[in-house]
Specification:
With 182 residues, this protein is an all-alpha fold. It has one domain. Helix content is 70%, strand content 2%. It has 6 helices and 2 strands, in the order βααααααβ. The protein has a two-stranded parallel sheet with strand order 1-2. Helix 1 packs across helix 3. The longest helix has 28 residues. It is globular and about 50 Å long. It starts with 9 loop residues before the first strand and ends in an 11-residue tail after the last strand.
Length: 182
């Protein structure tokens, strides 16, 4: 009888965890690209749209993963996968930080007021990013704000569920950050 409650988790290495997260990130990008092409007009050029969807997907992952060490590994793997040189990494990180600041500000607004203006702000910031708009000028198109917010919520919930399921099934003890006493 105790065997029913004492299931041993399968060990998952840090490398396998990062691979699974990068695979999830790519799936989110595909979903975001498809949704953007269907719901947002005008679409920016393909390169801009791809970048915005990748940044948004990385941000969604960063919300679901609390460990900054893992986030850093995912960002490094993303840059390696994109074959970024040092200058491209600096430029990308600067852009990522700028977008993340906008997303986090809007996310915190939404977290405080989910039924009111907070959702409109978050949806507007996401729609603006997807459309390649200027970062300091938000458009408040109710249809696009609602679509953007729904796209975010669906992907965010799916990502949280994926990470939760990994934690239930696998031993993630190697994934935790290493603390060094100084």
């Amino acid at each position: 009888m105790l065997g029913l409650f004492n299931k041993k988790k399968i060990h998952l290495s840090r490398a396998d965890f990062v691979v699974s997260m990068m695979s999830l990130q790519q799936k989110i990008v595909v979903i975001l690209l498809r949704a953007a092409q269907q719901n947002f007009q005008p679409n920016p050029d393909a390169k801009t749209l791809q970048l915005e969807c990748e940044v948004l997907s990385l941000w969604i992952l960063s919300l679901a993963i609390q460990d900054n060490d893992i986030k850093d590994i995912i960002y490094a793997e993303y840059c390696r996968h994109r074959n970024f040189d040092d200058d491209a990494i600096k430029q990308f990180c600067g852009y990522l930080n700028m977008r993340y600041e906008q997303y986090y500000d809007a996310f915190h607004s939404w977290a405080k007021d989910r039924n009111g203006a907070g959702g409109a702000v978050l949806g507007s910031v996401i729609a603006n990013g997807i459309k390649g708009g200027e970062s300091d000028k938000l458009e408040f198109d109710i249809f696009q704000m609602t679509n953007a917010l729904n796209i975010f919520i669906e992907n965010f919930i799916s990502t949280l569920e994926f990470v939760r399921d990994l934690k239930k099934k696998y031993d993630l003890s190697e994934i935790k950050p290493v603390f060094v006493n100084k």
